[in-house]
């Protein structure tokens, strides 16, 4: 194949999945000339699994991406078929938004957004090789011999590396949904010396909605209140489509048990490690044998299709068993299966080979993001994508690197977990992975991250100005409520009692009154009205900040303590094997991860407090004696 | 955590009349300030560096005065550790020093690991570089040893019990988490507030039970705290000297010789005793002596065993009767001394007032009956007469401090639940309780929650 020069860019992004699109969008927005090379332009931001975005932790990530100036929130706001706020009965820390997506519309909208972006070029092409000289990436080579040169390259090839689809005992080389697998690029990465692991994930069958008997299911409508992920969205979709709930039957369980020997999971055909939080239905029935039924959600894949996603029935059993399984579910007796469920095995790179910026340690200016790094999920991919995009562009533009902390964002938790601890199965974000989830809320994502997004040039001045006003209003209103007293007057008592509270005996500060569990900002604002009414956004912040002040303070104290350890930087190039006193396992793991701070070091498995002490001593010694490396 | 505030008793145990509790770290002044009351009302946080303050240490939860105290306040960087340092000088002997330390730990400090002050001094550049290798070895050895000791110290029953508590908390947490992370799964039982309170109360009561054994735990490590009481001049100091077989306490024929508490460690027939001689108890005008008497009453409260001395050569006085009354609920031995002198005391009345308790007659002067007293102490201890053989001991100060903190945080959780605070806030304190208990058994791995989540519940697409 003759090779030719095809162009030079600041940043090249390989792949236009959820990681790739955010990476490219961010880097272009920051002003770096950006090229996206992807296999198939009709598959941009394709959702190979469930047609939904958000949910606990993940939904907050979408908000965070939006606060940084990313794409996901804006696109889903325009293309969803239903939205729901989850956990409304619980506290503010765990509220989260989830949207059902119109898959095709989502892809089209994302594609158009990228096409409209000034510094961004989209191009269809299959990358086969990374061009690396002297430990630095210089560009990429495609299938047709085109050489693209760039200062930085971001690889976001998802589940495509040596992908293999498995249904029953059938196993064939393929990307997700029968797309081409990436074999040469996988080889190229391994030749460059990257360690890889084999992971597995799966997806359930799809059925034709016209053949579902909905009378046997329960309807699951969206919220009536208009919702949006993006802080910029002003127009809301009101015409929503419902989802439907049904259950497995005893027959389903019997079928699975009888056919277990045909499952590639149990016959040994599948070797990759699958996620424990996404077990296939055969897994669930084996592991939780005493459960008589499991939930099945039927989710429309879009407005212009009859295809329904059958959530809860993820499987890699042979197709004829899948058909019988579907027919055993109430409401699906006559359902026509459009596609069979399948499992896919693929190569992922061991993420401890990355710096917290997502640059690889082995090859300078090369970044990786998304499922390739051992995660699973659209939001997880997008989160890494935006950070890789920001850091690659920053490198080119001579700006400072951006690493979000565990107390700044779920994005920070995700990336820190990956690069510090690695992962033994596809990694999914859960709220319980965050130490400070009270600080990492859906509602305050903008307060946490807009500043950064604006500094990077990803948030417009106009949006930023609005943000500053909001922030100021929040502060002023909190201040006011702390100062103003509520007196036990009749009008006041009526409001309090109407809210189910006990009457005031003596005057109290409005802020203290708001701390009572039954009191809401709405009532307080009636009792002591502000000069100009607060927007619901501002009111929400005021209420949360005051109501949960004690908890927030406690969390902040912990954060400050951790920050001190975070600030103890570990100089580069330490030879851990030369430090006497470190335990053997600690030496090995520290050498692998090469933590940047004492805090990060303390999170590495196998590194115990004694090792941290010794490390501190060593660093201190190095500093005093000006020894380095 | 490397940069938190640490505390420890910095004088060797049992040596010297003054013991110092040293606190070092950012929150040192704040913590001391919470516990300290000066007569002038001046607060430590408003005081300047390198000053000494007189006042009282109080337990803020009860407002009860624990100890008369001198506080040295030294702010960074001109201190041993180059951090803010507070030294609490306590005069009250080991018992009250331990109380002071415990309060300091309860109010935010962490018990220092062995050698940790030195380590900090080193890290903050106070100690000579040439010693670094040695220091590293020391840290390795000490930290590892401290951990091993802590673990070995715990008998299987304690770690099993802590394990059970943690498992219960973990299951509760997993259920809260699953409701949060998978709200659509309606077939998972919702963790309700009453259920949470119920679990919380159970954990709380178990922790309290454990803590109540902590005084027994101390028996093993520090000896059975044995307090000698009685009216002035009955021969208390003489008894102490006789048991120790040395002249530790000053003996005179002047009533009120002993004005403060004297502690001695002695092994009596295989029983480790921490003997405490006290000022003779009576209403007294002498101010200094009265402080001593106050302390004697205090010490009495914390005693594992009381030896009440009566003077056989005098008739039973109302004070004696009051003392007999005071010790009624305690483990005690009654000793009628000075049998070499003409006897005035009505021994039958004494026996009647003593109830089930042993009554022994001695002449300490002529060394008669002391052996019988020793036998009685030993038989009480080994025969279970003194409550000391429940095998679940919490004997380590670090464990005790952690249990106290765990108790506080589970109480916070219960209180929050009762105030209808949202479940995910309550969860913060439950998680903290789980972590604190984990520190006792040396296990704080976050991942176990996530593993629990997926093994306990059936989730997925
Ligand atoms: C069968 C299946 C089931 C799944 N189930 C779940 C689930 O239950 N829950 C969940 O959260 N997530 C699930 N996922 C994962 C989710 O789809 C991914 O996490 C997410 O899409 C990853 O985004 P990404 O950008 O990293 O990769 P992808 O979205 O896979 O995008 C990769 C991109 O790289 C391009 N590409 C690949 N190789 C090359 C090359 N050589 N040259 C140029 N372009 C290339 C592709 O064309 C594509 O655009 C599943 C995925 C699959 C395939
Ligand atoms: N005759 C006789 N005298 C004794 C005996 N035991 C102690 N004494 C004397 O009683 C006096 C007081 O003894 P201490 O031991 O000082 O008494 P104490 O109870 O400590 O008195 P305080 O100083 O008030 O605490 C001393 O003169 C002792 O020698 C005894 O068994 N027989
Ligand atoms: Mg005496």
List the defining traits of the structure above.
heterodimer; A: 629 residues; alpha+beta; 6-stranded antiparallel beta sheet; 21 helices; globular; B: 461 residues; alpha/beta; 6-stranded mixed beta sheet; 15 helices; binds flavin-adenine dinucleotide; binds guanosine-5'-triphosphate
Helix share of residues of chain A? 25-40%
Strand content of chain B: 15-25%
Quote the distance from N terminus to C terminus of chain B: 39 Å
CA(first)-CA(last) distance of chain A? 45 Å
Describe the protein's topology.
The complex is a heterodimer of chains A (629) and B (461).
Chain A: E1 4-14, H1 18-29, E2 34-38, E3 52-54, H2 58-68, H3 72-79, E4 80-86, E5 96-101, H4 103-116, E6 120-124, E7 127-133, E8 136-142, E9 146-155, E10 164-167, E11 170-173, H5 184-191, E12 196-203, E13 206-208, E14 218-220, E15 243-247, H6 250-259, H7 264-267, H8 281-287, E16 295-300, E17 307-311, H9 319-327, E18 337-339, E19 342-349, E20 366-368, H10 378-397, H11 410-421, H12 445-455, H13 461-483, E21 485-486, H14 490-498, E22 508-509, H15 510-515, H16 521-527, H17 536-547, H18 549-567, H19 584-593, H20 598-602, H21 609-625
Parallel strand pairs in A: 1-2, 1-9, 2-6, 9-20
Antiparallel strand pairs in A: 3-5, 4-5, 7-8, 8-9, 10-11, 10-19, 12-19, 13-17, 13-18, 14-15, 15-16, 16-17, 21-22
Helix pairs in contact in A: 1-10, 2-10, 2-12, 3-4, 6-9, 12-13, 13-17
Chain B: E1 6-9, E2 19-24, H1 28-35, E3 36-37, E4 51-59, E5 64-74, E6 85-90, H2 93-106, E7 110-111, H3 116-123, H4 132-153, H5 156-181, H6 193-212, H7 214-222, E8 224-230, H8 236-244, E9 262-268, E10 271-277, H9 287-301, E11 305-311, H10 318-326, E12 332-337, H11 347-354, E13 358-361, H12 370-382, H13 397-418, H14 423-441, H15 447-456
Parallel strand pairs in B: 1-7, 8-10, 8-11, 11-12, 12-13
Antiparallel strand pairs in B: 1-2, 2-6, 3-4, 4-5, 5-6, 9-10
Bound molecules: flavin-adenine dinucleotide, guanosine-5'-triphosphate and magnesium ion.
């Amino acid at each position: 194949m003759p090779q030719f020069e095809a162009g030079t860019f600041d940043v090249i992004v390989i792949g236009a999945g959820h990681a790739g699109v955010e990476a490219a969008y961010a880097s272009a927005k920051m002003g770096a000339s950006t090229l996206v090379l992807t296999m198939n332009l009709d598959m941009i931001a394709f959702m190979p699994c469930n047609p939904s975005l958000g949910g606990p932790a993940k939904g907050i990530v979408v908000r965070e991406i939006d606060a940084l100036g990313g794409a996901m929130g804006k696109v889903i706001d325009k293309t969803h078929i239903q939205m729901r706020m989850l956990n409304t009965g619980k506290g503010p820390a765990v509220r989260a938004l989830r949207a059902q997506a119109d898959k095709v519309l989502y892809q089209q909208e994302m594609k158009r957004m990228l096409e409209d972006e000034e510094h961004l070029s989209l191009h269809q092409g299959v990358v086969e090789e990374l061009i690396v000289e002297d430990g630095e990436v210089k560009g990429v080579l495609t299938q047709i011999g085109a050489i693209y040169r760039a200062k930085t390259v971001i690889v976001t090839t998802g589940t495509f590396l040596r992908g293999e689809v498995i249904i029953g005992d059938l196993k064939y080389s393929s990307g997700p949904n029968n797309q081409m697998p990436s074999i040469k690029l996988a080889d190229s990465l391994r030749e460059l010396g990257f360690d890889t692991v084999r992971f597995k994930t799966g997806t359930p069958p799809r059925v034709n909605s016209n053949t579902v008997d909905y009378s046997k299911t329960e309807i699951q409508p969206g919220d009536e209140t208009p919702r949006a992920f993006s802080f910029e969205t002003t127009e809301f979709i009101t015409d929503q489509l419902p989802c439907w709930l049904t259950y497995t039957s005893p027959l389903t369980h019997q079928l699975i048990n009888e056919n277990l020997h045909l499952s590639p999971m149990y016959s040994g055909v599948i070797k990759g490690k699958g996620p424990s939080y996404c077990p296939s239905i055969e897994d669930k029935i084996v592991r939780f044998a005493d459960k008589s039924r499991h939930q099945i959600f039927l989710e429309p894949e879009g407005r212009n299709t009859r295809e329904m996603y059958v959530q809860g029935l993820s499987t890699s059993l042979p197709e004829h068993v899948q058909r019988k399984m579907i027919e055993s579910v109430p409401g699906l007796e006559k359902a026509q299966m459009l596609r069979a469920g399948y499992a896919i095995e693929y190569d992922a790179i061991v993420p401890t080979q990355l710096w917290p910026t997502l640059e690889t340690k082995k090859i300078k200016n090369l970044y990786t993001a998304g499922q390739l790094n051992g995660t699973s999920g659209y939001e997880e991919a997008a989160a890494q994508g935006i950070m890789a995009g920001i850091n690659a562009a920053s490198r080119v533009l001579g700006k400072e690197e951006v690493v979000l902390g565990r107390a700044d964002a779920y994005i920070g938790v995700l990336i820190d977990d990956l690069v510090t601890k690695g992962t033994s199965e596809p990694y999914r974000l859960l709220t319980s992975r965050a130490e400070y989830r009270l600080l990492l809320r859906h509602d305050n994502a903008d307060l946490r991250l807009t500043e950064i997004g604006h500094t990077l040039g990803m948030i417009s001045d106009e949006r930023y100005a609005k943000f500053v006003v909001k922030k100021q209003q929040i502060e002023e209103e909190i201040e006011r409520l702390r100062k103003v007293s509520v007196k036990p007057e009749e009008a006041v008592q009526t409001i309090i009692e109407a809210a189910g509270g006990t009457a005031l005996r003596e005057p109290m500060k409005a802020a203290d009154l708001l701390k009572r569990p039954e009191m809401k900002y709405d009532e307080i604002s009636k009792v002591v009205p502000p000069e100009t009414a607060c927007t619901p956004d501002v009111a929400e912040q005021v209420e949360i900040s005051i109501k949960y002040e004690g908890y927030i303070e406690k969390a902040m104290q912990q954060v400050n303590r951790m920050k001190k350890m975070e600030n103890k930087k570990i100089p580069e190039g330490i030879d851990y094997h030369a430090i006497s006193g470190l335990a053997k396992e600690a030496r090995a793991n520290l050498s692998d991860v090469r933590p940047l701070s004492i805090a990060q070091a303390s999170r590495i498995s196998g590194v115990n407090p004694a090792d941290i002490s010794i490390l501190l001593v060593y660093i201190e010694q190095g500093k005093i004696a000006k020894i380095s490396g | 955590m490397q940069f938190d505030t640490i505390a420890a008793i910095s004088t060797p145990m049992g040596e010297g009349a003054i013991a110092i509790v040293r606190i070092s770290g950012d929150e040192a002044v704040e913590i001391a300030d919470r516990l300290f009351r000066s007569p002038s009302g001046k607060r430590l946080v408003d005081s300047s560096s390198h000053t000494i303050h007189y006042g009282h240490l109080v337990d803020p939860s009860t407002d009860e005065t624990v100890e008369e105290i001198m506080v040295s306040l030294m702010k960074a960087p001109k201190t041993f550790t180059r951090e803010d340092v507070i030294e609490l000088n306590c005069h009250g002997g080991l018992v009250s020093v331990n109380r002071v330390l415990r309060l300091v730990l309860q109010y935010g400090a962490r018990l220092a690991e062995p050698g940790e002050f030195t380590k900090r001094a080193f890290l903050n550049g106070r100690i000579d570089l040439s010693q670094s290798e040695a220091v590293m070895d020391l840290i390795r050895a000490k930290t590892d040893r401290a951990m091993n000791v802590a673990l070995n110290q715990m008998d299987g029953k304690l770690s099993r019990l802590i394990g059970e508590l943690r498992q219960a908390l973990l299951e509760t947490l997993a259920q809260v988490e699953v409701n949060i992370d998978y709200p659509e799964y309606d077939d998972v039982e919702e963790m309700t507030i009453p259920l949470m309170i119920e679990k919380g109360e159970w954990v709380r009561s178990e922790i309290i039970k454990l803590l109540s054994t902590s005084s027994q735990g101390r028996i093993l490590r520090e000896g059975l705290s044995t307090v000698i009481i009685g009216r002035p001049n009955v021969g208390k100091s003489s008894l102490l000297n006789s048991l120790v077989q040395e002249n530790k306490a000053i003996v005179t024929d002047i009533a009120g010789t002993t004005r403060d508490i004297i502690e001695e460690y002695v092994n009596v027939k295989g029983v480790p005793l921490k003997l405490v001689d006290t000022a003779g108890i009576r209403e007294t005008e002498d101010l200094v002596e009265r402080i001593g008497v106050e302390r004697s009453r205090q010490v009495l409260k914390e005693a594992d065993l009381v030896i009440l001395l009566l003077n056989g050569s005098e008739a039973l006085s109302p004070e004696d009767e009051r003392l007999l009354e005071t010790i009624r609920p305690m483990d005690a031995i009654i000793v009628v001394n000075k049998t070499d002198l003409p006897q005035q005391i009505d021994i039958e009345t004494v026996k009647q007032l003593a109830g089930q308790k042993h009554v022994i007659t001695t002449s300490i002067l002529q060394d008669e009956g002391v052996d019988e007293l020793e036998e009685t102490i030993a038989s009480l201890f080994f025969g279970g007469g003194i409550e000391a053989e429940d095998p679940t001991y919490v004997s380590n100060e670090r464990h005790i401090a952690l249990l106290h903190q765990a108790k506080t945080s589970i109480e916070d959780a219960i209180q929050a639940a009762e105030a209808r605070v949202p479940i995910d806030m309550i969860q913060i304190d439950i998680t903290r309780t789980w972590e604190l208990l984990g520190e006792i058994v040396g296990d704080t791995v976050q991942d176990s929650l996530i593993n629990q989540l997926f093994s306990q519940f059936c989730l997925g697409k």
